Amino acid sequence: MSHANISIFIPHMGCPNACSFCDQRIISSTSHAPTPDEAEDIIRGAYERISSPEDRAQTEIAFFGGSFTAIDRDYMTALLERASKYLKTPEQDGFRSIRISTRPDCIDEEILMLLKKFGVGAIELGAQSMRDSVLHANLRGHTAEDVKRASRLIKEMGFELGLQMMVGLYKSTPDDELFTMNEIIGICPKTVRIYPVTVLRGTYLAELFDKGEYVLYPFEECVSLCARLMKGFTEAGIKIIRLGLHAEESVEDRAVAGFYHPALGEVVRSEWVKGIIENELLKDGFAECRAANRNMSILVGHKRSNRAYFADKRVSFIRDDSLPPGIISVNGRKFTIQ
């Protein structure tokens, strides 16, 4: 079993901002925040279902969906108390740790000490952009310096740091996204999530889009840009744990514009691999492309797009199960694809 999360959704209760892209206030008005008892039922059910000690040790309890450290303190503490009962100890084969997501301006030493007390091991911050002008335009309510300050505190206190960035925000350009990538690389998080914008009904972005004030660049440019981001983070040794929103009917129903695609990760990886093949073809005049069976879909491209693109070139696609997962080979040169 690979690393897994037991995800518990906490609506944006107490979140200090209504960011341009966020519809959580709409969701929170109709969705149910789990009680501590209900959260424990979810965790206990997963504990009983995942019976292997090794599998439990690869699993985290994850509180997602809102700014966890901005919710009511008593409620937050009660959730953490229930979750911590199921963590791994010398006496118990429990889960690895607790993962939370929050805002950079909702982190300080006091809250970090409390999180550590209850076994939180990983903290993800919604950085979204490292351009203050973009953060301001999208009503984020924090600065790039807040991201750096919170990241520094998190790492100094021994937590695993994850950062989240968005692509295509209002007033942002592809150059801004690359700037954000380089700033995040400079912070050295363990993980990163990349979220190309999906404009959801009822948000400020949707209003701007309807007025014609917010114009997105073409989807193909977003795909090319995300391929550059994935390449940059991979070369920096940063694990990409998500690209794009999860494919859900609720997202498709609420999306009015943006870069949502149910197989966005596969589309972007195909573009990334296409660039690798083009470079090797230019150098050698041919490209012998190899991958294990589980990675062949990435090699030949989403809906065989790479195979079609190189149809009239000296390019071959060969299954080679001697290659490990996540590795492709072009003319004997190996490349890591996350």
**Structural class, judged by helices and strands?**
alpha/beta
| Count of DSSP strands | 13
Order of strands, widest sheet: 1-2-3-4-5-6-8
Strand content: 15-25%
- Determine the N-to-C terminus distance: 18 Å
Q: Nearest-angstrom radius of gyration?
A: 21 Å
**What is the residue-averaged pLDDT?**
93
Q: How much helical structure, as a percent, in the residues?
A: 40-55%
Q: Main β-sheet: number of strands, strand sense, barrel status?
A: 7 strands, parallel
Topology summary:
Elements: E1 4-9, H1 24-30, H2 36-49, H3 53-56, E2 59-64, H4 73-84, E3 97-102, H5 109-117, E4 120-128, H6 132-137, H7 144-156, E5 160-167, H8 174-187, E6 191-196, E7 198-200, H9 204-211, H10 219-235, E8 239-243, H11 249-254, E9 255-258, H12 264-284, E10 287-291, H13 296-300, H14 305-309, E11 315-319, E12 327-330, E13 333-336
Parallel strand pairs: 1-2, 2-3, 3-4, 4-5, 5-6, 6-8, 10-11
Antiparallel strand pairs: 7-9, 10-12, 12-13
Give a short synopsis of this structure.
The chain is an alpha/beta fold and 338 residues long.
Describe the protein.
Helix content is 42%, strand content 21%. The chain starts with a strand and ends with a strand. About 1% of the residues have low confidence. The protein is α/β, with parallel strands linked by helices.
